[in-house]
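Quarterly update, task 2.4: PLZ-bound model.
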Amino acid sequence: MPQSLEQRRHLVTAIPGPRSIGLMARKNAAVARGIGTTMPVFAVEAGGGIVKDVDGNSFIDLGSGIAVTTVGNSAPRVVDAVREQVEAFTHTCFMITPYEGYVAVAEALNRLTPGDHEKRSVLFNSGAEAVENAIKIARAHTKKQAVVVFDHAYHGRTNLTMAMTAKSMPYKSGFGPFAPEIYRAPLSYPYRDAKDIDGELAAKRAINVIEKQVGADNLAAVVIEPIQGEGGFIVPADGFLPALVDWCQANDVVFIADEVQTGFARTGAMFASDREGIVPDLLVSAKGIAGGLPLSAVTGRADIMDASHVSGLGGTYGGNPLACAAALATIETIEAEGLIERAQKIERIMLDTLHRLQADDDRLGDVRGRGAMVAVELVKSGTDEPDADLTKTVATAAHQAGVIVLTCGTYGNVLRFLPPLAISDELLIEGLDVLATAFTDTRS
Ligand code: PLZ
């Protein structure tokens, strides 16, 4: 974290300030319209729980750049490791002249992911790229083609992962045709499922769809986020994921956990699968893996991972040496600073505060999440009807008051909180207070 960065929310201009307004005009003239922005301000510095903008405003960060800077922005170990690596060499291509950092990251992933079986890893750049490669590997291993994903899923914006992502607008609309052989099964969504649907019944419902509409003989992989991210921070009912894993195992289907958003201490465990008590065949990670540098990975059972022929997997930049140095420093930071426990403490603070808010405001329909991945689903008072307008209003008010908060959900009615684990209790509580005020203001 930059030494000079004071850990304090502090606004010195209207939001956005004049410099951000000027930069936004340049953005609109130079950057393709397809890239939207959540906040109207341009960043210059970030660390701990603060993002500072070009006008000198300091915001409380409850987003971590979408769950990426879990160890904090410019975390000290990451900065030192990347600085050392950038002076040694920036790129050789692991497929041309390999280097130790890549191997060390693979070893660390094989050690840290659930299960003590023999594993292998392979590195890429983005979450979507890793998801695509997990499917290549599952198809090579099973010699089957179909892939099952779930309602509300988000897996990326490339052609294959667009097909896997559920929501049309804004991710898919107008961008087809999409990749074939992707099938969608019903999820366990405790807040919206009928009350008698527990995890086991929800799994039966999904498996029934899979067996009837796809057939295990055709199915290479089942891909699921253990806690859905963009789809609304949906935590499935207990027993749902274990039942799916068991079914996959019995049917020669590769179970792939997409832990791009949930991985690396985010949910109060190194991986969300740990808290669900499941051992995926393959696990996809990205985001929090490298403290803000682009890196992603597929890790899993050695026999499945080794199914591809030599040179069947790859890419120019996958496992770039700077990103690998950052990943090793990130993992060291998580372990040395007890960040898994830190995420559990943050969970208690966030859930307590939000449950208290919910107690006297029934528009907070559901409060859910694990670790530093918590959300509130907003509905119209006295109903369970999604309220996307309220969500937008509260988020915008928080932004104006100096708090970065993100929204998500199929219905656009979920406020989600993904603070960096480097945030102080004080800043976190202040950020949630700002939110509480934003809620109260919408009632008057
Ligand atoms: N799988 C579970 O959450 C990325 C998307 C932001 P990439 N989520 C943030 C946006 O609007 O583009 C994500 C994810 C899960 C895969 C991905 C894709 O990861 O690194 O964005 O490709």
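Highlight for this quarter: The longest helix spans residues 339-359.
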